[in-house]
Amino acid sequence: MLTSLELLSPAGSADIGIAAIDHGADAVYIGAPKFSARADAGVSVADITRLILHAHLYYAKVYVALNTILTDRELAESLDIVSELYQLGADALIIQDVGLLELDLPPIPLIASTQMHNNTPKKIKFLEAVGFKRVILARELSLEEIAEIRRQTSKIELEVFVHGSLCVSYSGQCYMSQAVAGRSGNRGVCAQPCRSHYTLIDGDGSVIQKNKYLLSLKDLNLMNRVPELIAAGVTSFKIEGRYKGIEYVKNVTAAYRKAIDGFISGNANYRKCSSGGSALTFTPEPDRTFNRGYTQYFIAGLGEKVASIDTQKAIGQYLGEISEVGKDCFRIARHDLQNGDGLCFFTNKNDLAGFRVDRVDKDKIYPNSISGLETGTRLYRNHDMAFTKILKKSSGVRRIDVEMDFVQEDTFIRLTVRDGDGNEAEMVKHVLFEPPRDPARARQQLEKQLTSTGNTPYQVAKLNILPQEPGFLPASLLNSIRRDALEALTQIRFRAYPRQSIEFTPNDTPYPEKNLDFHANVFNALARQFYERHGAAVTEPAFEIIIETTGKTVMTTRYCIRHQLDLCPKMNPSGRTVKKPLRLRDAHHTYRLEFDCEQCRMFVIMEGRTGAFEKTPE
Questions:
Q1: Sign of torsion, CA 508 509 515 518?
Q2: Which CATH number fits domain 294-383: 3.30.70, 1.10.3210, 2.40.10, 2.60.220?
Q3: Is the pTM value of this prediction over 0.90?
């Protein structure tokens, strides 16, 4: 039995979702009209319908995210939305709030959002037991941990993020935005305080790092890890980016399509789970669109430095070092720079600076500002004019291969069209046989007209013609029978689309934890009811309801500032030591850092207003 592999791309809009499918995605995920974890990426019912129609033609799937925590009042409205999404043909629902599971849901497959913090075999076994079709695993997991989850579960599908922005905190366990700005990440309106700069101070109040982006991570890139992820049991490869532009989605989707197809071509036991192939007008290169520099995060363990503490902005593609600087220009070896490109570099103080290319004269580059540039400066391109121009246009066309059988008898012609998914359409037109004056030309015209599929989603891979010397037929007649046969095939494909329905049946499978504090994100009475039915006591409501947040852990992360700065006593025992406790400080708040070195975890704990621990550096 073949294992299906899925490339899953983000759709911040229907147009972006359609572009993702045209560039090779097997599925896309899009925000529901309301209650998505990217609140500003909600999409109208009309646009979701348009996306579903386009996707299903290629047997690609559309998953809809309704993955915020919900109030009691919002639950009823959510059920209406879910019912409508099911009627529209959505293939699955991505959720975080277990209160939804206490409602009378339509038989739509359920996907456990990464916001549920799916990080242990026990948790995933529970989700499988209560009826989830798929789980989106926590980003922090290693290959070994993913493989162990697969060993301890049976049928539940495993989906992992392979590319894009990283949340520094465990997903669903970050409360910093709510604490400092009243904007809950679990409600879809995260203010992204992790992308702000902080000062790190030790137990004496001495400054260790000043105004650095100490919680801002690089972007994930696991393209080279696809075979290992498959071996670990992953079948869905997810690209982050419902806030990203269409150029980013086209480029990264096409790149991962190539990587996954490369694996499938050498492994006969695997297949992709949608139809058709994409013809591109460009060579995909993820480095040439938005990225903050890349990391493989913890997929291979805990050794890599994963943060980008000098900038939270995109740095883009590394170009090389400046070889010479003149009065108003510089030189760099082997470049393809163009007027209007945006370049950036790190200054001697490790601040990110940028400039625009005003003019290119062979190996001489004339920037709009020469300030800070010197021989040896490492340059990055964070705006690629030529590449962006290509991607803004139509850059990918997806076609489904079909085989045609054309038969001509004395009184009729018949065209049969078959696709690779087992669908077949037949069209017959009555016409008297007229012997051709030029048999070769008659056959040539027949081949030309029948294979001219134009802007349809099909391309003819094989054409069989009987008899070998068909009679003369007008081009208009051949075009008509081809058009009618392909339209009939399209309708047959829609009717035969393999949509899955799964009834959700509540049970009382024991939850793996007995007592649940605010980290369980219980925001409504039905969520409490769900956990209690599964034997867990809810001792504390969601963080969003708690009034006093001082002393609360607002972030739990596998990323460790001490490791990033070579201060880790476990991984660098002979390195510099600092007095505890360490604290982070921004313009308004102070956070205490605590460390669980046995589990390699860092906790960011809300303390109060800035000022109490400040010491003027010497």
A1: negative
A2: 2.40.10
A3: yes
